[in-house]
Design a protein that fits this description.
Number of helices: 13
Number of strands: 17
Subcellular location: Cytoplasm
CATH architecture of the largest domain: 3-Layer(aba) Sandwich
Bound molecules: adenosine-5'-diphosphate, magnesium ion
GO cellular component, one term: cytosol
Radius of gyration: 23 Å
Keywords: ATP-binding, Cytoplasm, Glycolysis, Kinase, Nucleotide-binding, Transferase
Structural class: alpha/beta
CATH topology of the largest domain: Rossmann fold
Organism: Clostridium aminobutyricum
Largest sheet: 6 strands, parallel
GO molecular function: ADP binding; ATP binding; phosphoglycerate kinase activity
Distance between the termini: 8 Å
CATH class of the largest domain: Alpha Beta
Oligomer: single chain
CATH superfamily of the largest domain: Phosphoglycerate kinase, N-terminal domain
Strand order of the largest sheet: 5-6-4-1-7-8
Length: 395
């Protein structure tokens, strides 16, 4: 377990917090502030406990230059509104300069300041020690609360921890608690549902989860590469041709590991990748040459539902059909509903799966929706994330 802000005496201390304020912007206006609101519990805790709070984040890809298109000014304004409190924002092109240092020095307990986009500095993404030191010198404690960049060793996510005591904020704590516990000490049966477009994207996740789960369900576009590996014809369905051999190997590994591997037994197919195209249901061994599978069929939904109902822990990564088109969303909706009704610990890891669950209005029925994207995938691959590894362990 990693230490969190609760394990530190932050009163009167300058605390530099790496947040993920990489919000979507349109013409300089924030179109979705969920990343800012998600960070508020950590920020409020620090304010209430008398810390002097220094926030930092990246925004977009300014490629190491002070491109004001990527200024954090709109974020500073939104934080002010949400906290109902003045905050200090100095738009320094070099992120840390004399004015910033003085302002940090002058902070009083409960004050909040936001630094300019850390990616204005070339060193940031190279984890340059000089920049890490400049950031560290502003503060007494480093808090990482940006899970979405925790798989990157950058100055503001990991480097700064070389020079300051480092702990996690509440967002990273929650990710480690749910994703970490689910993978390392799950209540069993432990079922993973994998979907998405390509096997290639998820090979390492499947390999890692095969060592942990009792049942692995495979749906979505990646199922067709497995069908091909089993010798079935898949029509014009999406195929990851370079990974057929690997799919065969994974099938074998599942068998050796005693993991129940469930593939769809029927599919909802169409004549074209189009919501208006003619559709039909086929058993998986009867997909005609000019049809493509775009969702799982009703028999598969039942098969998957029965396996999920038994589970005490479920991880879901990747939609089981092209849910963006209403005619091919039924399978993904069915999986989401079963998870929503389940008493199991249910964890959603994956941008599109999370979006699907949101879209169906079932997000609050899940135990945890990971905000990570790439970071959640690497976590599920069993990799060490530099932004977490750098934090102090609990004794
Ligand atoms: P996540 O972001 O949850 O990890 P992925 O990015 O791996 O998920 O995959 C999501 C994409 O997979 C969706 O855009 C969806 O349309 C696509 N997909 C699912 N099933 C199929 C299919 N049968 N054929 C083509 N694409 C599919
Ligand atoms: Mg995705």
């Amino acid at each position: 377990m990693k230490k969190t802000i609760r394990d530190m005496d932050v009163s009167g201390k300058k605390v530099i917090v790496r947040c993920d304020f990489n919000v979507p912007l349109k013409d300089g206006v924030i179109t979705d502030d969920i990343r800012i609101t998600s960070a508020l519990p950590t920020i409020r805790y620090l304010i209430e406990n008398g810390a002097k709070v220094i926030l930092m984040s990246h925004l977009g890809r300014p490629e190491g230059e002070a491109n004001m298109k990527y200024t954090l000014k709109p974020v500073a304004e939104r934080i002010c509104e949400l906290l109902n409190k003045e905050i200090i924002f100095i738009s320094a092109p070099e992120v840390v300069n004399d004015q910033v240092k003085k302002a940090a020095e002058a902070l009083q307990a409960g004050d909040v300041m936001l630094l300019e986009n850390v990616r204005f500095r070339k060193e940031e993404t190279k984890n340059g020690a000089e920049f890490s030191k400049e950031l560290a010198k502003l503060a007494d404690i480093f808090v990482n609360d940006a899970f979405g960049t925790a798989h990157r060793a950058h100055s503001s996510t990991a480097g700064v921890a070389d020079y300051l005591p480092a702990v996690s904020g509440f967002l990273i704590e929650k990710e480690v608690q749910f994703l970490g516990n689910a993978v390392e000490s799950p209540e069993r049966p432990f079922v993973a549902i994998m979907g998405g477009a390509k096997v290639g994207d998820k090979i390492l996740v499947i390999e890692n989860l095969l060592k942990k789960v009792d049942t692995l369900i495979i749906g979505g576009g990646m199922a067709y590469t497995f069908f091909k590996a089993q010798g079935y014809e898949i029509g014009t369905s999406i195929l990851d041709a370079g990974n057929i051999g690997l799919a065969a190997e994974l099938l074998k590994k599942a068998e050796e590991a005693g993991v129940q591997l469930l593939l769809p037994i029927d599919v909802k197919a169409a004549k074209a990748f189009d919501n208006e195209a003619e559709t039909a249901i086929f058993d998986k061994d009867k997909i005609p040459a000019d049809w493509m599978g775009l969702d799982i069929g009703p028999k598969s939904m039942e098969l998957f539902a029965n396996a999920i109902k038994e589970a005490k822990t479920v991880i879901w990564n990747g939609p089981v059909g092209v849910f963006e088109m209403s005619n091919f969303a039924a399978g993904t909706i069915a999986v989401a509903k079963i998870l929503a009704e389940s008493d199991a610990v249910t964890i959603i890891g994956g941008g599109d799966s999370a979006a699907a669950v949101e879209q169906f209005g079932l997000a609050d029925k899940m135990t945890h929706i990971s905000t990570g994207g790439g970071a959640s995938l690497e976590f599920l691959e069993g990799k060490v994330l530099p932004g977490i590894a750098c934090l102090q362990d609990k004794n």
